Amino acid sequence: MQSRAFILFLLRILKMGITIFTLSLSAKYFGVSLEKDVWVLALNCIIILDLAIWGPFNETFRAKFIFFKEEFGEDEALRRTNSLLIFTNIITIILVAFILWKPETIAAVIAPGYEGQKLTLLLFMIRVVAPSFLFNQLTQIFISILNAYNSIYIPEIAGFISSIISLLLIIFLAPQIGIIALAYSYYSGLILLLLLLILQVYVKKIALVKNLHHIKLSDTKPFLLFALPFFFPYFVGQIAGIIEKSIASTLGTGIISAIDYSRKFSDILLGVLSSVFTTMLLPVLSLKFVQKDQEGFVFEFRQIYQLAFLIVTAIAAIFTACPGAFIAILYQQGTISEAALLQISNLTMFYSWSAVSIFLYLIIGMSLISAQKGKYYAFYGVTAQLIMIGVNLALYRFAGVYIFPLSLFLAHALSAWLMFRKLPYGKRLLSRTTLKYLLILIAVVANMYLLNINVISFSSPYVTLIFNGFLFTVILVSMLFTFKLDEREILVKLYNKFLVPQK
């Protein structure tokens, strides 16, 4: 499974490059401004609402669909999926209509300090992005269905194509119509992605709209019951997000944009890993658990766990050693001040470390879902969010904007440790694996950080970033062979395939 995960990761990396370039263009055209703050608030509000309501369904759908397909057959699984699809669409349409009618209800929650021109602009932007709620949920359902049919790469390719279209629209429209270009870009990408996904469902002959007259509301009950333990943590999680945005809006104009710019890198890379967990790891582990294959369960989990750990090591190493170079390349050509750039650079470093604990939280949580222990994932998910809320409210006046990555790291690290104790199999083996890879992470990051402080001094951020990438590769490869990690076999195979002369 490592090779398939690696291919999926590369596809996601390509899309990530487009996303980062889009972020750079946003900084160039909009900087840290009121308009950008309002766009981030409005869009995040809709995303938060989507996650709070449908996030549990989207996260658990693949595992439940595979169970239905194995136990009752494909036709029954699709019939129940049809019911779920129609049910979610009707509820979403009602919610979109309410948001368009009463946007001030949401505005009062996410930005209580906004009034006058600020409030007017926020209400307008909420109405602009509200319909994206429906399109986004539809794409999530179709991606989940295709993943359940082992169609992993096509949704990623479709997403990559839609990202390129979105990027081109920003380039051509931003100088002409300002911040609204982001809305045109966002909607164009969503709608194109949805059309491509529908086309793929048709090509694979998945009978998703067959026998619509047999649809029953009761068919959604198994999905609802399976996802029910996750509604509370998702709801509390979105409350935590709203509180964070609300606190940030009181810290000054541009702070929300600074957080958005700095957190995006870690979030994008975590999104890449999360997609691997949900599209590949979760279905495989669910099948191994149903088959009562304990050795297979631990083996498949370790393969992805170790590979993902090295990817997270890269995130922490690069953004700890030279965050300033990365930020300078992406944002310095815009209207952002030097003080704001320094703040974004520091925040980027701290968020890269929070990515380590979030990674552990996500992958252990996925394994618990696949082992029918989702209630523990749900409970400790709530624990993490409550810790974040408490720390943010108690300490933001003392720590300022830096409290957000700190609370994120602490809360998810604690929850990951508590969930680890509930793993069904292989806890002793996985404990040794975790300790080994944590030590490697610390060693790699410490070496790169010390070298950048005491030795490396390039005037060009491009040279700094390239050199650090090379340095990370050298250090990591040496670690792979020194500690005899399984991932060294991938390098050996690549070497034998491409560099050793074939007889």
UniProtKB/TrEMBL annotation:
User: What is this protein called in UniProt?
Assistant: Peptidoglycan biosynthesis protein MviN/MurJ (Putative lipid II flippase)
| Job of this protein | Involved in peptidoglycan biosynthesis. Transports lipid-linked peptidoglycan precursors from the inner to the outer leaflet of the cytoplasmic membrane.
GO biological process terms, alphabetically, are: lipid translocation; peptidoglycan biosynthetic process; regulation of cell shape
Q: Tell me the domain of life.
A: Bacteria
Q: Could you state one GO cellular component term attached to this entry? A: plasma membrane
- Membrane topology according to the record: Multi-pass membrane protein
User: Which organism does this record belong to?
Assistant: Pedobacter metabolipauper
- Give the record's keywords alphabetically: Cell membrane, Cell shape, Membrane, Peptidoglycan synthesis, Transmembrane, Transmembrane helix
Q: Name one Pfam family in it.
A: MurJ
